[in-house]
Amino acid sequence: MIARYLAPLAKEFKGAFELTDDTAVIRSESGFDIVATVDTLVAGVHFLNSDPPTSIGKKLMRVNLSDLAAMGAKPHLYLLSLALSADTDEAWVADFVAGLAEDQEAFGIKLAGGDTVSTPGPTTLTLTALGQVAAGKALLRSGAEIGDAIYVTGTIGDGALGLAVLNGGCASLSKHMREHLVARYRLPEPRVSFGGDLIGLAHAAIDVSDGLVADLGHLAEQSGRSASVDVARIPLSEAAETACAEDRDLLTAILTGGDDYELLFTGDAAKEAEILSRAKRCNLRLTRIGRIGEGEGVHILDKEGTQVSLDEQGYRHF
Amino acid sequence: MIARYLAPLAKEFKGAFELTDDTAVIRSESGFDIVATVDTLVAGVHFLNSDPPTSIGKKLMRVNLSDLAAMGAKPHLYLLSLALSADTDEAWVADFVAGLAEDQEAFGIKLAGGDTVSTPGPTTLTLTALGQVAAGKALLRSGAEIGDAIYVTGTIGDGALGLAVLNGGCASLSKHMREHLVARYRLPEPRVSFGGDLIGLAHAAIDVSDGLVADLGHLAEQSGRSASVDVARIPLSEAAETACAEDRDLLTAILTGGDDYELLFTGDAAKEAEILSRAKRCNLRLTRIGRIGEGEGVHILDKEGTQVSLDEQGYRHF
């Protein structure tokens, strides 16, 4: 299986020795730091057994690429550890690998090594991604300054609503809209290219994986600041907008649901023109959603500027 | 759990940001290559649920360190991905982490980042280890030359017999001997320091994880050579020797069972004095067990130099 399906993914990286060695050798490049991240996806927890294996491969890759993007790092190499359940057949492996292969091409990353075992439990997939960034220039969560504008790429909440659709929710939406949301859940678009463009421009950055409010909370905490978000400015897709118009309570899922894999960052509002022009160059929607302030915590403000609270019953005024 | 148990493991490595970031930043050091390896251990497959969590943490670390040792690389950083079963309690995590912490000290490696998820299946532990080696100097599997002597560190077969003891086998051995074998199964000793000493001296190297015969086969194949082993020269512990004297068929388990994590390498027999002196400096038993030749495959020779065959019924003459 390794020789047939995985070795071809490693053939362009000499240090992988065609996966005949347990270990990869990576030449250091002076002037660059290495950025490393690892994510594990468990069948039935982080993806559905009914998801197409091609999109599982891509999702495994992309959740890691999104971490690299938030650092402004360029994808370089990855290591793969596959714990495959006993009922995994060759067709599943072939499709899963096809997804990885397509994303290797799309994002310029190569397989460097890995481990393959079988498990009596659910298939458990772990990918360690290594990226490169100019020495000392990696974007961090900790650099937000008082007065910074807060920006987010793309649209928020589609991943959470896509999962809801797969679980039978949002049934009143059109087929087209439901498909859009499911596609966004299954196949995040890591903002790799734009992440690199933000080096020297963003003060702090994170990718939205745990949910907008939680991840903005991480950024604010690491920066020792507070963050205010104008809820009316949160960018929604047409499908999410329609779903929300029908059921206002979905806004909580959108703000806290996670699986967005968009970039959330802060920067000097005086440089907004340059920030927006870089996003435009990447064909990327970019929205200013709030501001960094003194103190701590994340404050969600409604149209009138009144702070609202999020909970499982939906959002409401204090 | 991350802040309480895992962040302390990362506190000495600044690029881990106290695990508050999903990603680690590793400063490149010019003149060094990075060696990367990943291994996954599944509960009930690669370790027993009855194994002490401290030794599970150490084993996870050490199987990876053994891969670095076989490259001659110095351990540097690791990433950890823990998929924990629902019944994992805090005491298990505390003990598991204590094992990692002890081995960080012992081997000079630090936690750089990771991911922690829960799984409906068995606990599945993945560790990605990064090491450093002088640029272009990593030991490979592919450098064995015709006429090279084949050496192995320590003793072979204890891991396989230790697993047999845990499964109720080798019952006639003394308690002390059974404990020795179980300890060797649970706690491999990666030959990290000696691996570094072999740079510039070994022509090809591998660690014995799949079993002596299989791993020597990998080395021979990657080198495009054959390997002959004198079975009487295979170094055995007192316990393994005793077990074998009672049941000659155990020799097959010893030669093919794996989980040894000793170093197997080839070198110029004319430099044997230097090779042995470096092993002595590391307090390491080292045994010359055979020779590299033309052709392909692994040939096991008995005392009379006659080739024997290994199979599940034990070993026998052709």
Strand content of chain A: 25-35%
The whole-number mean of residue pLDDT values of chain A reads 93
Low-confidence runs of chain A = none
Let me know the CATH homologous superfamily of the largest domain in chain A.
PurM-like C-terminal domain
CATH architecture of the largest domain in chain A: Alpha-Beta Complex
Give the helix/strand class of chain A. Answer: alpha+beta
Distance between the termini of chain A: 57 Å
State the helical fraction of chain A. 25-40%
Order of helices and strands of chain A: HEEHEHEEEHHHEHEHHEHEEEE
Question: Which characteristics define this entry?
Answer:
homodimer, 318 residues, alpha+beta, 60s Ribosomal Protein L30, Chain: A, Phosphoribosyl-aminoimidazole Synthetase, Chain A, domain 2, 2 domains, eight-stranded mixed sheet, four-stranded mixed sheet, 13 strands, globular
Tell me the layout of helices and strands.
2 copies of one chain form a homodimer.
Chain A lengths: L1 H9 L12 E5 L4 E11 L10 H19 L2 E12 L4 H18 L2 E10 L4 E11 L14 E5 L4 H9 L8 H12 L5 H6 L4 E6 L4 H12 L2 E5 L7 H9 L3 H7 L6 E5 L4 H10 L4 E8 L3 E5 L5 E5 L2 E4 L1
Helix pairs in contact in A: 2-3, 4-5, 4-9
